[in-house]
Write a structure and sequence with these properties.
35% of the residues lie in helices and 10% in strands. By secondary structure, the protein is of the alpha+beta class.
């Protein structure tokens, strides 16, 4: 369960985990301070965090996975016949959505190319024309038929759910449609729905006269910075062969697309945690 930080993160800020509950905020701060390679399985963390037992730490790691801060993977590592199975926990202080994590883990699963040796001097080579076969083009997706309802975007749904998170920010369908593009820009910058909801509902006044105007201003003023896409790992790093994502809750392995919020379907459909344990 060695920690592996995702590449190219901005420097840490004091409010990185401000929107998390107290338990998750405390554990996230501890994990963030750990060096890469440090163990961060449930038992090891519970030994060094006296406020929480193993059940509480396990629930917190699940919540941090759902919030978009971590993903667990299992794979083979090693060279020269000395291959062993290892589990790594990829950690990001910036919360990312499932699409970002899926792309990142898929890229990580591709082995790094071997270094190319320097060519020795030899006779001059004459280029030979090579015919390139015709490439397949992706078939266009069919347009929705007349009368067929269009599926709401993630941005629209996040805005529509604000009223459930806090009734002071209940928006109408027309409000959500008008603010949809502004919210979509948050997702384009790598944040998830929970981060967006937390940023819009944090520190609300006792009464909000105009939910539409209030949300519009926060979408504009609190827009997070644009983060660069993750870059491939260095060539010198030993790759994880046959890498599989693990469910954060039950450790069931599988392909990245089989997991949502780092959880397999049975764990997503199970009853929510009753609350913090010892």
């Amino acid at each position: 369960y060695g920690k592996r930080s995702v590449p190219e993160q901005r420097p840490p800020l004091e409010g990185d985990f401000a929107f998390l509950p107290e338990r998750e905020r405390h554990i996230a701060g501890y994990i963030e301070a750990l060096p890469d390679g440090a163990v961060m399985d449930v038992k090891s963390l519970a030994k060094v965090l006296p406020l929480y037992g193993q059940a509480a730490v396990g629930s917190a790691l699940k919540a941090l996975s759902v919030a978009g801060h971590l993903r667990r993977v299992r794979g083979q590592s090693g060279d020269d016949g000395q291959v062993r199975w290892v589990t790594r926990t990829y950690w990001s202080r910036i919360a990312h959505d499932n699409e970002w994590w899926g792309s990142f883990l898929t890229a990580e699963a591709v082995p790094a190319p071997a270094p190319v040796p320097e060519p020795e001097p030899g006779p001059e080579l004459v280029p030979v024309p090579v015919s390139v076969p015709q490439q397949r083009t992706e078939e266009p997706q069919p347009e929705p038929e007349a009368g067929e309802a269009k599926r709401p975007s993630r941005a629209f749904m996040a805005l529509a759910r604000l009223g459930r998170a806090d009734s002071r920010l209940a928006l109408s369908a027309a409000d959500c449609a008008e603010l949809e593009q502004m919210a979509a820009e948050w997702f384009e910058r790598g944040v998830g729905a929970e981060y967006l909801t937390g940023a819009l509902t944090a520190g609300l006044p006792d009464a909000v006269g105009s939910p539409f105007g209030f949300v519009r201003r926060r979408l504009r003023d609190k827009l997070p910075p644009r983060m660069p896409a993750p870059t491939p790992r260095p060539v010198s790093e030993v790759p994880l062969r046959r890498m599989m994502v693990e469910c954060t809750e039950c450790r069931t392995p599988g392909r990245p697309e089989a997991f949502i919020d780092g959880l397999c379907r049975p764990c997503r459909e199970s009853a929510p945690d009753a609350g913090p344990a010892d």
